[in-house]
Design a protein that fits this description.
With about 300 residues, the protein is α+β, with helices and mostly antiparallel strands. It starts with a strand and ends with a helix. Helix content is about 40%, strand content about 25%. It folds into two domains: about 180 residues, Sandwich (Jelly Rolls), CATH 2.60.120.280; about 110 residues, Orthogonal Bundle (Arc Repressor Mutant, subunit A), CATH 1.10.10.60. The chain contains ten helices and twelve strands. Strand 7 and strand 8 form a beta hairpin. Strands 3-4-11-6-9-12 form a six-stranded antiparallel beta sheet, covered by helices on one side. A four-stranded antiparallel beta sheet has the order 5-10-7-8, with no helix packed on it.
């Protein structure tokens, strides 16, 4: 490993030198139980890369996950170069030599976690992100999870290995649900990605007032058919499915917390027809709005 630092007991961790600000954690190296299964955190960190940042690793003693949160860079792995930017998350194992560069004009800031696998199948492969480049739009949640992972990794105690493993498993699961490499929005697709993000924001902040694709298109300033295309390119659901999910989740919340009638709740979330509202609600939650409220 050409870029890393040797810590106690001769173990090398993938901590780069060409960084400005940084935060790290090194959980206790207490002996891992032979009955332990799953992942064990070795170290994790947050690094603000300098313009000269470049790492080249040919061999190392752990599995790695990295998440870019600011700036830009490039990673070359398995002979292929990938542009990396905010939201890009990637994993690689001990058999994955790679090089990574930060942009000179806009150096990246990133999180990373180094971990071992114990008495289990390849956890990275289990989560379907082995040797894969992915992109998550849920960057805020990933930041929180990594911050908590680092904070917990700086603690000590009988359960700290289990707590850090739980956070790391959540991070791996969030990465697994991110968009795969062939669907990552590239800089050349900036307009489509921007429309997708603006449409999502409109839905998330104003779903009660949007009743059709045409209304959504008018708010975003594009044709409804174009919104369908960008959701197919960058999303996991259609815009109507996304809109309905937000409406029905809020309706469920109102049913449990308010004394409003079902017809009133249907109107609040943008369904003029109470019977249609009840139909789609039952399809999503498996019970009618009335039974949901009664049994909730």
């Amino acid at each position: 490993m050409k870029d890393g630092r040797t810590i106690s007991a001769g173990q090398s961790f993938p901590i780069a030198r060409a960084v400005g600000e940084s935060r790290y954690c090194f959980p206790s190296s207490k002996e891992t139980s032979s009955n332990t299964k799953g992942v064990r955190l070795l170290c994790a960190g947050w690094e603000k890369c300098l313009p000269g940042y470049h790492v080249e690793r040919t061999e190392f003693q752990c599995n790695l996950m990295e998440l870019v949160v600011e700036g830009q860079g490039t990673i070359r792995i398995q002979g292929k170069s990938h542009e990396i930017f905010p939201g890009v998350v990637f994993c690689y194992g001990m058999d994955s030599p790679h090089e990574m560069w930060a942009s000179v004009e806009n150096p990246m800031t990133k999180y990373f976690a180094a971990f071992e696998l114990h008495n289990s199948l390849d956890t990275i492969a289990d989560f379907n992100i082995s040797k894969d480049i992915r992109w998550t739009r849920d960057l805020s949640t990933m930041r929180v999870l990594f911050d908590e992972l680092i904070r917990e990794g700086q603690q000590d105690g009988d359960l700290h290995q289990h707590i850090t493993a739980a956070y790391l498993n959540l991070i791996l699961l969030k990465a697994a649900e991110a968009l795969p490499d062939d669907r990552i929005p590239r800089r050349s697709e900036g307009k489509g990605r921007d429309v997708f993000e603006r449409a999502l924001l409109c839905i998330e902040t104003g779903f009660c007032d949007i009743t059709s694709l045409d209304e959504l298109g008018a708010k975003v300033g594009v044709d409804a058919n174009y919104i369908c295309r960008v959701f197919k390119r960058f999303g996991k659901e259609t815009p109507i499915q996304c809109l309905s999910r937000h409406k029905l989740n809020y309706a469920a919340e109102l049913l449990l917390s308010q004394s409003m009638s079902i017809a009133e709740i249907a109107g609040v979330v943008g369904y003029a027809d109470q019977f249609y509202f009840s139909k789609v609600f039952k399809k999503r939650f498996g019970s009618s709005p009335r039974d949901f409220r009664t049994n909730g």
